[in-house]
Design goal:
By secondary structure, the protein is an alpha/beta fold. About 50% of the residues lie in helices and about 5% in strands. It has five domains: about 60 residues; about 55 residues, no CATH class; about 60 residues, no CATH class; about 60 residues; about 210 residues, Ribonuclease H-like superfamily/Ribonuclease H (Nucleotidyltransferase, domain 5). It contains 21 helices and five strands. Strands 3-2-1-4-5 form a five-stranded mixed β-sheet, sandwiched between helices. A hairpin with a 4-residue loop joins β2 and β3. α10 crosses α12 and α14 crosses α15. The chain is elongated and about 120 Å long.
């Protein structure tokens, strides 16, 4: 037998065959989208049927029936089909289920079909006698008054969805429609349909449609207590409940409520209750504060140094920029209306950079070099560079944040060494003094403002092809900046260099740090 093709193709092929229009087998095969071997096999089959049944093979339906004869039922199938009329009658008139009937069948025919095949053949038998669905006698409503039927038909035309869906469910249940079909039609669960049928069976029409919902005072009181307990919980810190978080989330509130009050509360319920009480999650605004208890003392020391800075004294603001990857960067850019500049989220880095730098506040000059890491060795290296660059000065001050490598024992020992009289005379170096910033007060570190301007000028919207190319851009930026402030010492941080977040002067109201530029 050739591979079976769809009936529409088979009919077209039969029509062409009967009209003797099979001229080019290749063209017919291409038109029907079948192989030539399949076409040849069908034509051979056509010729055999035409030779054996020439008197009846003219009719298309008869011809196709001869081409694909129906399978003859086995003795066991015929035996099972003999049970179906009686089974159907019992399902129509009793509360028995199809599974109950199968159990009875298997007791009489121990070697009979299993449940799946039994159900399958029963459905085929129903279709053969013109019934599309199995009787649903278990959930079928057997008695319903004419008045109720009329009222349900009115409800079925109603715009009230609740009335409409219950009326449809009851009327279909009266006609023996399966629960799955009713539930699918109404887009409700089988359990919901069952509940409506049960309610009607137990209390009648009025119970299902005219019942007024009376609020349960105990339940209302319980909900009120739950909301009050939840608000109490919100006012406490999560750490009091063994949760290692600084603020609440829906998940942690749900878990803490269960532990504290011995009953569960879902995250959805938590969300509904806190919104009903006027609460919502909002992001906290960042405030520039320092927790250092000696904040004012350290600040007064720095301002005193700057206000009395001598001609041969220099004050350096020190920090590191990075590490940052050299790759295509985003940022603000001038584009034509309707166009959008994009850059890939995942990129292969061309390298990594850390720029260590010191800004001298009185002259607005930046000294920088590139490091492989942030540690004490790089700070000692910066110290040696500045001592050599500013030899001949009387005193230099170092001001930096509270990073561990800025206040290490090894660095203090190095500063002690370079401050010895013999070393200073031999190398003509200035005295070194430290003026550390208060803890968590990076917003007072003036060089952060320079880094922000540098990042906005040469890092944002860049696509350097190598680390060397990126270094050249940064070197040129600082060189041009230093030249500018040598020529215009009174205009630091203004006009051309206005890209810097604040003027390059020390002020308690500064906010030099901006993570967006890092």
């Amino acid at each position: 037998m050739p591979n079976r093709i769809p009936v529409n193709k088979l009919r077209l092929l039969f029509a062409l065959y009967k009209q003797n229009k099979i001229i080019s087998k290749r063209r017919i095969a291409q038109t029907l989208k079948i192989t030539r071997n399949t076409l040849k096999n069908y034509l051979t089959k056509f010729q055999n049927i035409n030779g054996s049944y020439s008197e009846v093979a003219e009719d298309e339906k008869t011809f196709i029936g001869l081409l694909f004869p129906q399978r003859v039922k086995s003795k066991r199938e015929n035996q099972m089909y003999a049970f179906f009329p009686a089974i159907h009658a019992r399902l129509e008139n009793t509360d028995l289920t199809l599974y109950d009937e199968w159990e009875e069948y298997i007791r009489e025919v121990p070697q009979g079909f299993k449940t799946t095949q039994f159900y399958h053949h029963y459905s085929k038998w129903l279709k053969s006698i013109g019934i599309s669905t199995k009787p649903n006698n278990r959930w079928r409503i057997k008695s319903m008054s004419e008045e109720e039927v009329l009222q349900l038909k009115k409800f079925r035309q109603s715009v009230n969805r609740q009335k409409w869906e219950r009326a449809v469910a009851l009327l279909d249940a009266q006609n023996g429609v399966q629960l799955e079909i009713i539930a699918k039609k109404l887009d409700r669960s089988r359990d919901a349909v069952k509940d409506w049928i049960k309610a009607y069976a137990l209390g009648g029409f009025d119970t299902l449609f005219n019942k007024k919902r009376i609020p349960n005072e105990d339940i209302a009181l319980s909900l009120k207590v739950k909301r009050a307990n939840l608000i109490k919980l919100i006012h406490e810190t999560p750490r009091l409940h063994g949760i290692n978080r600084a603020s609440w989330s829906l998940k942690t509130l749900s878990a803490a409520y269960r532990e504290a009050f011995g009953e569960s509360m879902s995250m959805t319920t938590v969300s509904e209750y806190i919104r009903a009480e006027g609460y919502s999650f909002k992001k906290a605004r960042e405030t520039l504060t320092s927790p250092d208890p000696l904040y004012r003392e350290k600040l007064q020391k720095i301002t005193a140094i700057l206000s009395n800075l001598g001609a041969k004294e220099k004050f350096f603001s020190v920090d590191e920029f990075g590490p940052f990857a050299v790759k295509m960067k985003g940022g603000r850019v001038l584009v034509k209306k309707g166009e959008n500049r994009t850059y890939p989220q995942f990129q292969k880095s061309k390298g990594c950079l850390i720029c260590t730098a010191a800004l001298e506040l009185s002259t607005n000059q930046v000294t920088h070099f590139y490091s492989t890491k942030k540690d004490t060795e790089e700070m000692i290296r910066l110290l040696e560079v500045l001592l050599k660059e500013y030899s001949g000065q009387e005193r230099i001050f170092f001001s930096w944040d509270a990073a561990s490598w800025h206040a290490s024992k090894k660095l203090h020992e190095k500063i002690k060494q370079v401050n010895e009289l013999e070393y200073r005379i031999a190398n003509d170096t200035p005295l070194v003094e430290l003026a550390p910033l208060p803890a968590s007060a990076q917003f007072l570190n003036v060089i952060e403002s320079v880094f922000s301007g540098m990042a906005k000028g040469v890092i944002h919207n860049s696509d350097y092809q190598s680390v060397i190319e990126c270094k050249e851009a940064i070197d040129r930026y600082f060189a041009e900046r230093n030249t500018y402030f040598k020529e215009h010492p009174k205009r630091a941080g203004n006009k051309i260099w206005g890209k810097e977040k604040v003027k390059s002067v020390f002020s308690e109201i500064n906010n030099c740090k901006d993570e967006r530029w890092r």
